[in-house]
């Protein structure tokens, strides 16, 4: 990388040619004098090739799945087939407009209808709305549905939503935003929901229970039937955070084991390039009794074809996004599901689970793993051993991984595991790439013993060393200025 990657401007150099102006009147006459520039804009002066090289070089400073394994736990950073990108840009998808009449949108509506139905089948739910544009917005939508369900029954006192202490931060945030009170439940020694603790907080004020399954420790919540009986005994609803659905495809239908609502993260499980904040798509599925509350419009079908269905407008929680959500992500998910089929989807999850277990066993001799039983599609190792013996923190280990050409795992989450490193390799990694990643992790464990000082300094090879995370958020300054 050239050192002066942001200082490439050269006076007089151009990367454009404009056609000659066909209007004789000077443009200044159309624009009021007070808006006239007093001085020439200070813009970088570069050729097209300079600009191309600049952006290609920048892209390589970042980490992406095509560059190397991306074990960011719970985020499911799998490879996203390039065919999707070609098809989603096809003019038949790219050039349609949401204000077009339904009769001219039949193909797009059919795609959405099929996707709704396929997601309903995969999850065992009665129907699915595609509107929410993130997992977190799916949670908010689900909670508004819970609120509407209780309101319709006159149970406005139901304000409590229970969730385990392993929950993702968006869960309590969505609850608070939706006007509920969060009741946090301590996990048991196995890392699962503590049924005794749950019994102790169950009362008539319980509106619902939010659970990630498999949970953020990578463990399947085996007591879901008991949990479901307890919550349903007070007419509460059970929400499944479906961010970890990559472990269940074709194996478990959440709607058939007690869950009433769930969100999908299409960008995680069903392949859209993500990381960096979006866009996403967080469809929400519900069981029969909650159908009246789903956002409108749904996509439905009758003798005349496919149409935007507003029939539940009176009971619906309303719209949760402009138009119909993030259409392009739905197209990718549709292609992914249709190409893999039922058997292929099951193999996705089986391979995701095998890959995670293989990696966990490889790392077990070197890093502490609190919950050693077979995991689902991810597992949580931790740096407590290194911290205690060598004074090296999980942050140091994560930073050192960048030097070795890998993205870091999710660190310090879940909060209940000190020095946590949550690792999700996904099904798209080969045995060779898992071995190479394990070797890098093992080499770091060795460095922790031999050269702990170096680890405090890591990363040593990246263009930016340790960033001040707090400062980066508080005094963000993304402007570019030409130096005089
Ligand atoms: C990613 C994630 C979410 C939030 O989903 P977004 O699409 O990022 O809004 C919620 N819960 C868990 C467990 C997650 O991993």
Spatial sequence of strands, sheet with the most strands: 1-7-6-5-4-2-3
Report the sheet-strand fraction: 5-15%
Average pLDDT figure: 94
Largest sheet: 7 strands, mixed
By DSSP, the count of extended strands is: 12
Ligand types:
pyridoxal-5'-phosphate
CATH C-level class of the largest domain? Alpha Beta
- The number of distinct helices, counting runs of at least 4 residues, comes to 15
Brief summary:
The protein is of the alpha/beta class. It contains 15 helices and 12 strands. Helix 10 (327-363) packs across helix 13 (431-450).
Task: Considering the chains and any ligands shown, give keywords for the structure.
Aspartate Aminotransferase, domain 2; 484 residues; seven-stranded mixed sheet; globular; Aspartate Aminotransferase, domain 1; 15 helices; alpha/beta; 11% strand; three-stranded antiparallel sheet; binds pyridoxal-5'-phosphate; single chain
């Amino acid at each position: 990388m050239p050192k002066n990657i942001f200082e490439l401007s050269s006076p007089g150099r151009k990367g454009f040619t404009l056609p000659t102006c066909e209007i004789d009147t000077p443009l200044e006459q159309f624009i009021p004098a007070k808006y006239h520039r007093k001085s020439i804009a200070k813009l970088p002066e570069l050729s097209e090739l300079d600009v191309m090289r600049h952006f290609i070089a920048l892209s390589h400073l970042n980490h992406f799945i095509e560059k190397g394994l991306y074990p960011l736990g719970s985020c499911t950073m799998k490879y996203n087939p390039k065919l999707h990108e070609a098809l989603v840009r096809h003019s038949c998808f790219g050039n349609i407009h949401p204000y077009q009449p339904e009769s001219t949108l039949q193909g797009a509506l059919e795609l959405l209808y099929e996707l709704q139905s396929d997601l309903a089948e995969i999850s065992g739910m009665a129907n699915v709305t595609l509107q929410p544009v993130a997992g977190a917005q799916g949670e908010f939508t689900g909670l508004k549905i819970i609120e509407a369900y209780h309101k319709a029954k006159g149970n406005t006192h139901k304000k409590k939503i229970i969730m385990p202490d392993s929950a993702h931060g968006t869960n309590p945030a969505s609850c608070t935003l939706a006007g509920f009170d969060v009741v946090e439940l301590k996990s048991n020694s196995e890392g699962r929901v503590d049924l005794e603790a749950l019994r102790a907080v169950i009362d008539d004020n319980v509106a619902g229970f939010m659970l990630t399954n498999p949970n953020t420790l990578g463990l399947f919540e085996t007591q879901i039937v008991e949990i479901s009986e307890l919550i349903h005994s007070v007419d509460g609803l059970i929400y499944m955070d479906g961010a970890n659905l990559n472990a269940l495809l074709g194996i478990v239908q959440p709607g058939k084991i007690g869950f009433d609502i769930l969100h999908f993260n299409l960008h995680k499980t069903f392949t859209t390039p993500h990381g960096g904040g979006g866009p996403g798509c967080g469809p929400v599925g519900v069981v029969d009794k909650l159908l009246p509350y789903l956002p409108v419009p749904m996509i439905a079908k009758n003798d005349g074809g496919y149409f935007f269905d507003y029939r539940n407008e009176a009971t619906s929680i309303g719209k949760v996004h402009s138009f119909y959500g993030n259409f392009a992500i739905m197209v990718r998910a549709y292609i992914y599901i249709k190409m893999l089929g039922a058997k292929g989807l099951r193999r996705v999850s089986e391979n995701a689970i095998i890959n995670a277990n293989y990696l966990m066993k490889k790392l077990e001799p070197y890093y502490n793993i609190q919950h050693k039983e077979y995991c689902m599609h991810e597992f949580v190792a931790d740096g407590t051993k290194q911290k205690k013996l060598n004074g090296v923190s999980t942050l140091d280990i994560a930073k050192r991984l960048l030097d070795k050409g890998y993205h870091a795992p999710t660190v310090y989450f879940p909060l209940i595991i000190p020095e946590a490193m949550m690792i999700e390799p996904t099904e798209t990694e080969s045995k060779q790439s898992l071995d190479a990643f394990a070797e890098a992790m093992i080499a770091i464990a060795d460095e922790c013993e031999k050269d702990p000082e170096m680890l405090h300094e890591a990363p040593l090879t990246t263009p930016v060393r340790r960033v001040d995370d707090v400062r980066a958020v508080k005094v963000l300054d993304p402007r570019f200025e030409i130096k005089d």
